[in-house]
Amino acid sequence: MTTLQIRLLAIIAIAIGAFFLFDLDQWLTLERVKAESARLAAYRDAHPLLATLAYAAVYIAVTGLSLPGATVLTLAGGALFGLLWGTLIVSFASSIGATLAFLAARFLFRDTVAARFGDRLAAIDAGLAKDGPYYLFTLRLVPLFPFFVINLAMGLTSIKTVTFYWVSQAGMLAGTLVYVNAGTQLTKIDSLSGILSPPLVGAFALLGLFPLAAKKLVEILPR
Fold first, then answer.
1. 99-134: string of b/e by CB count within 10 Å (b at 16+)?
2. CB 168 within 8 A of CB 99
3. Measured distance CA(194)–CA(64) in Å, rounded
4. Distance CA 139, CA 172 (A)
């Protein structure tokens, strides 16, 4: 590792360590957000621009550092800013944070992984060069893997940063809408597990697989 890589890794490790050392994770629980909702709403009313910027900054930091709490933050976005503005803010903040995590993984570990698994990584890169956006869109839309895993894993590939950003934002939009909308009824939510029902997950799966399936069908049909 270069000196710059070591310094960046140290900064990230310190930030993550401080998050847990000072029990900041307790602020990103459903119970705490519900308890503080009135106070947060009052602050939003008094300082709308500052509240928006602070919320977006926290969201970007949480997703950029792959910390737990993004789901609760998304619900809080719906509670504080409503469906339209909440979705808009969360969509950009989550995509920016995901891209930062993606870039950090690429900068810190891409060369090391390439040196050790060069042939395998080259094969993966070749597949992503052809169908990468379709696979990424499917992964974003179907909640089978934690998003932070996707961010870090994609950073080890050669997919373009711009492609990663816009496909991620498009793929996460449906889920963002669902959670922000649920957040507008925050007081009625007792658990995070019931927000995405099995039929809704199935619908997302079909929607996510459709572009990839359509592309493959076009490729195999006679011309």
1. bbbbebbbebbeeebbeeeeeebeebbeebeeebbb
2. yes
3. 26
4. 9
Identify the CA nearest to 170 among candidates 92, 69, 55. 92
Half-sphere exposure of 159 (CA within 13 A, CB side): 30
Residue with tokens 């963002």: 176
Which tokens belong to 37? 């909702």
| Nearest alpha carbon to residue 76 among 35, 122, 106 | 35
Tens of pLDDT along the chain (223 residues) come to 789 999 999 999 999 999 999 999 899 999 999 999 999 999 999 999 999 999 999 999 999 999 999 999 999 999 999 999 999 999 999 999 999 999 999 999 988 887 877 677 777 777 677 777 888 888 888 766 788 889 998 998 889 999 999 999 998 998 899 889 989 988 888 877 767 666 656 666 666 666 666 556 555 655 4
What single-letter amino acid sits at 125? D
Whether 146 and 179 have beta carbons less than 8 Å apart is answered as no
pTM for the complete prediction?
0.88
Residue 31 in tokens: 């119970």
Distance CA 186, CA 78 (A): 8
